[in-house]
Each structure stands twice: as C-alpha cells, then as structure tokens.
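Dissemination and training. As part of the outreach component of the grant, students in the summer workshop were shown how a complex can be specified as a set of sequence lines and then modelled as a single object. The example used during the hands-on session is reproduced here so that future cohorts can follow it. Participants entered these lines:
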Amino acid sequence: MGTDQQFDAAAAAGVDRITDLPDDVLHMILARLPSTTDAARTSVLSRRWRRVWAGVPALSFRYHESPSSSSAQQVYQLDRIDAALSGHAATATVDVERLEIAVPYGVPGRPRRPVAALRLAAPQRRAPARRAPL
Amino acid sequence: MEVDKGKGEAEETRKVAEADRDTVTLKSSDGKLFEVSKEAAARLSTVLAGMIAGGSIDDNGTDLKQIGSEALENVVDYCNKHANSIPSAALISSSISFNTAPFKEPEEWERKFVDRLSHDALFDLVEAANFLGMERLLDVTCHKISEMMKGKSPDQIREVFNIKNDYTKEELEEIRQELAWAFYDD
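and obtained this result:
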C-alpha cells in the first residue's frame, strides 16, 4: 500500500481509487476546483460522476475579461452563469451555502448584466409548491 | 522467576507510562503500533477526541482496523508535525462549515507532506483522514487531489485516476447538451 513499487503495480493494474471515495469527500475535492464549471465537467467522467457536482453546496463562478473580449462575449459569459445557476437548481441535491461570482467592476462600457445573474441566483430555492388540502 | 521478573518490569513501565500519559497508542490493521501526542490527536481528529474523552483508548494500542500501517504512519507523522508548526487557533477558524468554508490554503510544509506521497498512499491517507474525522488533513489531501484534476480535460482526468468511462456515446452527448454552459470553447 503506498510504496512507489506498489503504486506502479496499482497503476499498471489500472486501479481507480478516486471513484470509491464517499460523496462527501468528492464534494470537498470538487469544491476546491477553480470554478463550478470545472466541477460540472466531471459529470462526463463516468456514470458514478454524473451528479456528484450537484451535491457541492458551494458555487463559484469567475467572469473572465480580457482586453479583447467583445461585449457580446461578455454577455455570453454572464448567460452561462445564469444557465449554470438554473442547471444547478434543477439537479442540486443540497442547498447552496455559498455562492461566489467574481466579476471585474468598473470597466467602462461593460453591460450591466451581473445584476441579472445575481437576481437569478437569489430565488433558486423555490418556495415549496402550495398544495390544495386533501 | 523469569515470568515474575517480566511482570515486574511491565509493572514498572506501566507506572512510568501512566505518570506521563501524554500520548496515545494506535494500532494499524496489520498490527503495528504508533504513538501520537494525545493533545494533537484530540485536536486534529474528532474520532480520536471522542475516544479519548469516552475513555475507549486502549493503552496497549487502540485498534484502527480500517487503517493500514503506512497510512497510520502518515497520520501520526502529520499530527506530530502539526503539533510543532501551527498554532491551534489557525485550525479552529477553518472549521466553520466542513464543505463550504472558504478554504485555508495548505501551509508550505503541508504541501510538501502530501506531495511526497505516492498516488496510492495519498488515497489511503484521504480515507484514513475521513475515517478519523481529521478535517484539516482531509482539507489538505483533497486540495492535492483537486490540483491533480485542475486544468485537465475529462480524458486526461480519467487517465490520471484510472477512471473507466462507462457511458455510451449518446449519453455523453446528452450530458454535454444538458450542461452546455460548462462545455463551451472560448
């Protein structure tokens, strides 16, 4: 267990150690990736990974802006954050405890869309549907 | 008689041990014994803290059947190093919420500590940390694993971790469409 020699043997045998970790631990690993986008991409790894990302109770999005970004590209990035928040709300298995959206501030001419993303984020936990009394 | 003499010696050592019992003895699944500072064990592991408080620590070696000797050696090593290098206040502040508290970056020595581990030893240590409720060690090892994923394509991640892709092509396409916001080309 753990020596380099044994590791080589394990690697040669193609032993998958990460997939057997409990969900809680996988959530901790995914939460440490740079953004929720990276976490969500792990859903294609294998069936076991399909919805692991949706159990991470922390969401993090970084809005990148390069000098060459056109205003259309910027809007597109924010649309993706909106889509991500909706997507997470639709599949999430936990309540979101932390939401982080990093957007550069005070760039002239940038559309004032971040607000839209935040508005969308706020009511993600839908109120329980009202049911007619039996 | 030999037996009596042996017993007397054992008595002697036990008395000494009881006098300054500031360590606990842990026993790995393969029967090896490790000593660790009681203070560090209680501070770093919720499970060991509970056992110490509950008096279920065995002076002859508390059985940890789920943990092999190599992983346990790393756990003990980590506890000892931790006891020497980090003020306990730094730890307490990081324990607000297990999954979501903004992470405290690993210290330089913690980084080195996990960097020297083989792939298997790293995963053995994650499992041990999880089993023992060692939040900070779990933090540090999970950080290391996330670094192994960072900036890699799904194919590369599968390769690093030997993950077998059991999806059909159609299923993969479906996921990519559902999560279009995550699969874009800039």
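Chain A has one domain: 14-124. Students were then asked to discuss how this feature might be tested experimentally.
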